[in-house]
């Protein structure tokens, strides 16, 4: 019987891996776009309008990431419940606190302290999000959510370091497009966003793997 049922088991395992990879990619794209756009708006001289716009983008991204989790576990019916909205608020607050602490301390020390704090806040948010969706507590709660939190915080540290400590631009030769001429420019911050996206994917892949294979 075990031999007969083995294809079904392998099929379910493969399906979970595919679903987990797709969910991780979706969550990473949402988080990278939201954090990247927010960071680009507020990392330099900011005004009240840019701060509000960045806050809106960050909160919408947090909500969309919650939607990805709900779609993955087939629990989209209760996304607007207060405890699930609260999870998105915690995530948004965590990113804001991270940047404020880094700017308050400044330099490499600011990045180190803020990144450590962010790792703790993200770990807390992951635990709260599991509870908000009624997911069973993972074994080793203090360790399992911490790994995605540390990975995501490491990507955030890279993003901040490229904005503060690098200042280079790579430009392509002028490209003729019809009657106009365009130039493609890549700055260090773009690389930082890409690295953050990679860390975000790794973090969410591990996270969804644990959710789908408890």
Q: What does this 3D model show about the protein?
A:
The chain crosses the membrane at residues 21-39, 51-73, 85-105, 111-128, 149-166, 178-203. Keywords: Membrane, Transmembrane, Transmembrane helix. The protein is mainly α. The chain has helices spanning 2-42, 48-72, 82-105, 107-132, 146-165, 188-212; strands at residues 169-171, 175-177, 180-182, 185-187. The radius of gyration is 20 Å and the shape is globular.
Name the beta content range.
Answer: 5-15%
Radius of gyration: 20 Å
* Structural class determined from secondary elements: mainly alpha
Morphology call: globular
Q: Mean pLDDT across all residues, rounded?
A: 82
Order of strands, main sheet, comes to 1-4
Number of helices: 6
| Unreliable parts | 1-7, 139-143
Compressed to H and E, one letter per element, the order equals: HHHHHEEEEH
Number of strands: 4
Oligomer description: single chain
**Helicity, in percent?**
over 70%
Give the topology.
Layout (H helix, E strand, L loop, with lengths): L1 H41 L5 H25 L9 H24 L1 H26 L13 H20 L3 E3 L3 E3 L2 E3 L2 E3 H25 L2
Key descriptive features of the protein:
214 residues, mainly alpha, two-stranded antiparallel sheet, two-stranded antiparallel ribbon, 6 helices, 75% helix, globular, disordered N terminus
Please summarize what this structure is.
Keywords: Membrane, Transmembrane, Transmembrane helix. 75% of the residues lie in helices and 6% in strands.
């Amino acid at each position: 019987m075990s031999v007969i049922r083995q294809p079904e088991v392998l099929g379910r395992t493969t399906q979970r891996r595919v679903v987990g990879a797709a969910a991780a990619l979706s969550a990473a794209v949402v988080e990278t776009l939201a954090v990247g756009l927010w960071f680009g708006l507020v990392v330099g001289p900011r005004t009240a309008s840019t701060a509000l716009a960045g806050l809106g983008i960050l909160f919408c991204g947090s909500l969309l990431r919650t939607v990805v989790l709900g779609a993955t576990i087939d629990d989209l019916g209760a996304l607007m419940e207060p405890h699930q909205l609260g999870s998105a608020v915690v995530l948004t607050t965590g990113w804001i606190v991270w940047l404020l602490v880094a700017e308050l301390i400044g330099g490499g020390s600011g990045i180190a302290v803020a990144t450590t704090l962010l790792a703790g806040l993200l770990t807390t948010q992951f635990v709260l999000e599991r509870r908000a969706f009624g997911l069973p507590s993972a074994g080793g709660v203090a360790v399992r959510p911490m790994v995605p939190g540390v990975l995501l915080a490491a990507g955030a540290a890279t993003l901040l370091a490229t904005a503060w400590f690098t200042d280079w631009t790579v430009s392509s030769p002028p490209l003729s497009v019809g009657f106009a001429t365009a130039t493609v420019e890549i700055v260090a911050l773009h690389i930082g966003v890409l690295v953050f996206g990679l860390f975000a994917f790794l973090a969410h892949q591990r996270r969804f793997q644990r959710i789908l294979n408890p």
